[in-house]
Specification:
With about 325 residues, the protein is of the alpha/beta class. It has two domains: about 140 residues, D-Maltodextrin-Binding Protein, domain 2, CATH 3.40.190; about 130 residues, 3-Layer(aba) Sandwich (D-Maltodextrin-Binding Protein, domain 2), CATH 3.40.190. It contains twelve helices and 14 strands. The strands form four sheets. It has a five-stranded mixed beta sheet with strand order 2-1-3-12-4, with helices on both faces. A five-stranded mixed beta sheet has the order 7-6-8-5-9. Strands 10-11 form a two-stranded antiparallel ribbon. Strand 10 and strand 11 form a beta hairpin. Helix 3 runs parallel beside helix 4.
Length: about 325
Amino acid sequence: MKKIIISAIILLSLLSAQAGAQVSAIYQEDIHSLSGDLIIFHAGSLSIPMKEIAAAFKQQNPEVNIMLEAAGSVECARKITELNRRCDVMASADYAVIDKLLIPKYADWNIHFASNEMAIVFTEKSRKSKEINKINWYRIMLDADIQIGRADPNLDPCGYRSVLVSKLAEKYYDQDGLAYRLMAKDKNNMRPKETDLIALLETGNVDYIFLYRSVAEQHRLKYLLLPDEINLKNPDFSELYQTVSVEINGKNPSEKIIQKGESMVYGITIPKNSPNANVATAFVKFILTKDKGIMILEKLGQPSVVPSNTNSFDNIPNDLKIFANRPTI
């Protein structure tokens, strides 16, 4: 009888050890199940946050090779629509770029995930930097001795938002022709994306640039905050923002899009031609999770808007639906 009991105990121990080994193997397989290249096109204003988010994601998924490619958001979209470039994740500084240029042919859905605001950015070496304030900033920028810079409206949301801010400033300060004068000045200082302007600023080639507050903070630059009636930050001023607009290039060179003013909201999607959709889904989930990607974004000056309403809610993958809301009627 004792021999039978001992044999049973030994058998149970062996079965338990075998089961544990199987669980361990499954766990190890799950940890390393994500692999391959992950190609990410993203707005220039997301460069620093994306590097941190990518590093954190790779620490948990060492077999994934993350390739980050920064450009103006419109340019990112055109890499997909015009150059037939394949990518796994597209993160835009303006959700409308995804809606207007990618959906429905190149992408099915769009999740809104972060916000920002426009500011006037400068350094201690900028001429008249000790004088500039919310009342006189546009007069200083129009000074013939001052050089200003902005992003290209046809390539980067920061570029067309600079135009919108100028038009809102014209209304706010009651200065006829202000927007035209600001946008006509120093056109040789226009660059493809907003982060390209930082080099001009730091080398002293320009004194002031139109730039996102988050980018200024990330690069430890000085900045002047603008009134909410101008800065495209506050959703409470949506009706006011929509009273101004700018014409930019559309899906092809002969097409034009009217971009109206609205509060800043970033968008993210996985294009239909994603070569590594499973990893892309895991990465987007990581970005949108509060104690992961969202925590990094907020630390770097970009408040979360997750979850937000999106017209493409029904097309969002089930694993990502928790990060968005269906629009209310």
